[in-house]
């Protein structure tokens, strides 16, 4: 007989959000919690995501809403109105967990519970082994995940899907079946239909063996993460990897550090990431190129700039601009150029010009192909070469301000280089600019 109390310690007045799809697994979980609710004075909230892909979705949502009303359970629902071009299952999962997290915080819940079972764990482990991962990935997923102010709990990992379906049948619990679970085009379905039956023929309790395997890997991974975290303090500063320090690490820890960096964008779902992506990053780090990048899934880009590596999500931010320079201009790179009456400094963040030497008005724009600037005593120099000499990151070059006059002559590269038009403090000038 299934007993959820055998697999998790409940406390009086626990507030629990249940991620519920209306399928056999999650409906079994809801029923189990409903049965022990009076004993612990539990506050239950069902959180449902309508994926909006099947006509039956509306019916499932309505069923859950009515079920919760009958049993006096709070019901929260969201409908996904559109999907991007991303991997569907990964995108849907991210949307679900984002929604679940919002519901958790709305009710100040202790736990988010999901109905993952032993078969799910086997499938996930096999998929990770096939794709390649690290110890954390190979372990599948944990029974309890600490999210800081709440925990994600999967209390049904010791049971199989059949045991949960039998539970539903014995207790006359209605549920819905998603017919897409039978389609071979989805990787997980192929493991479920063809691999799991074979394993269960070999051992009917194979799910418990995989659960033990997962727990052993999690224990080992805790030790490895402790060593990794010590290394991270040495090599990552403000989300930027110091390549020189990184190269001194043990090769195994190097890979763990890179998985850690990617985890910010892929969380604990490593379906999109495997050891091939780690090799891409390592090749980038150890390449002789001073500036280079590689593209990762979900529009994440890894950029190497000299001895630094940084991961960022590709955005639709401004990459070009052109604006007339008045008294004060706030730039898209979060810096400012302003015209001042007096200035003490003489560094590259200052510029003194004589209006009769140039054509007004001045304009601030982004770089263009072939840009060159006349520098004092050295002829002209490509803006691209100045960026390289000054070790400006690739990610910063597109937004770096270039000051030109009305004829398009570059008169200043703020913060980096002065042109031949810049005047010394002892010379005649009538325009003073400051970059900050």
Give a short overview.
By secondary structure, the chain is of the alpha+beta class. Helices cover 39% and strands 20% of the residues.
Report on this model:
The chain has 436 residues and is α+β, with helices and mostly antiparallel strands. It has three domains: 4-116 and 154-202, Rossmann fold; 231-313, Uridine Diphospho-n-acetylenolpyruvylglucosamine Reductase, domain 3 (2-Layer Sandwich), CATH 3.30.465; 322-435, Phenylalanyl-trna Synthetase, Chain B, domain 3 (Phenylalanyl-tRNA Synthetase, Chain B, domain 3). Helix content is 39%, strand content 20%. The chain is built from 13 helices and 22 strands. It has helices at residues 24-40, 56-70, 88-106, 118-131, 135-138, 161-170, 187-202, 206-235, 243-246, 251-266, 275-286, 383-389, 394-397, and strands at residues 15-19, 43-50, 74-79, 111-113, 144-146, 151-153, 236-237, 240-242, 291-296, 300-305, 308-313, 322-324, 328-330, 336-339, 350-353, 363-365, 372-374, 380-382, 402-404, 410-413, 417-418, 431-435. The strands form five sheets. It has a six-stranded mixed β-sheet with strand order 3-2-1-4-6-5, sandwiched between helices. A hairpin with a 2-residue loop joins strand 10 (300-305) and strand 11. Helix 4 (118-131) packs across helix 7. It is elongated and about 95 Å long. The N and C termini lie far apart (70 Å). The relative contact order is 0.08.
């Amino acid at each position: 007989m299934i007993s959820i109390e055998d697999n998790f310690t409940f406390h009086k007045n626990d507030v629990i959000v249940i991620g519920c799809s209306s399928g056999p697994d999650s409906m079994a979980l809801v029923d189990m919690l409903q049965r022990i609710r009076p004993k612990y004075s539990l506050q239950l909230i069902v959180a449902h995501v309508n994926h909006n892909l099947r006509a039956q979705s509306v019916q499932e949502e309505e069923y859950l809403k009515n079920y919760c009303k009958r049993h006096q359970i709070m019901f929260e629902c969201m409908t996904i109105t559109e999907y991007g071009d991303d991997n569907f299952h990964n995108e849907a999962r991210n949307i679900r967990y984002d929604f679940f997290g919002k519901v958790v915080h709305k009710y100040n819940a202790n736990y988010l519970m999901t109905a993952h079972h032993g078969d799910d764990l086997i499938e996930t482990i096999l998929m990770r082994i096939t794709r390649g991962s690290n110890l954390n990935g190979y372990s599948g997923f944990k029974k309890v995940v600490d999210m800081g102010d709440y925990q994600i709990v999967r209390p049904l990992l010791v049971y199989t899907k059949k045991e949960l379906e039998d539970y539903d049948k014995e207790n006359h619990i209605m549920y819905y079946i998603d017919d897409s679970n039978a389609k071979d085009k989805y990787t997980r379905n192929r493991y479920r239909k063809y691999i799991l039956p074979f394993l269960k023929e070999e051992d009917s309790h194979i799910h418990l063996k995989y659960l033990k395997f997962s727990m052993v890997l999690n224990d080992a991974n805790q030790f490895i993460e402790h060593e990794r975290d010590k290394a991270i303090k040495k090599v990552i500063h403000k989300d930027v990897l110091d390549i020189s320090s990184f190269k001194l690490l043990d090769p195994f820890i190097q890979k763990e550090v890179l998985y850690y960096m990617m985890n910010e964008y892929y969380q604990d779902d490593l379906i999109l990431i495997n050891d091939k992506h780690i090799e891409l990053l390592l090749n980038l780090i150890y390449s002789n190129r001073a500036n280079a990048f590689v593209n990762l899934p979900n529009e994440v880009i890894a950029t190497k700039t000299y001895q630094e590596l940084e991961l960022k999500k590709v955005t639709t931010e401004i990459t070009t601009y052109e604006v007339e320079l008045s008294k004060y201009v706030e730039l898209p790179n979060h810096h400012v150029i302003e015209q001042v009456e007096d200035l003490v400094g003489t560094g590259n963040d200052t510029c003194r010009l004589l209006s009769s030497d140039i054509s007004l008005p001045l304009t601030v724009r982004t770089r263009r192909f072939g840009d060159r600037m006349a520098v004092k005593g050295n002829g002209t120099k490509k803006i691209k070469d100045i960026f390289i000499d000054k070790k400006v990151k690739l990610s910063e070059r597109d937004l770096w301000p270039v000051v030109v006059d009305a004829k398009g002559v570059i008169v200043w590269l703020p913060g980096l280089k002065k042109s031949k038009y810049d005047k010394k403090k002892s010379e005649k000038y009538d325009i003073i600019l400051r970059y900050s």
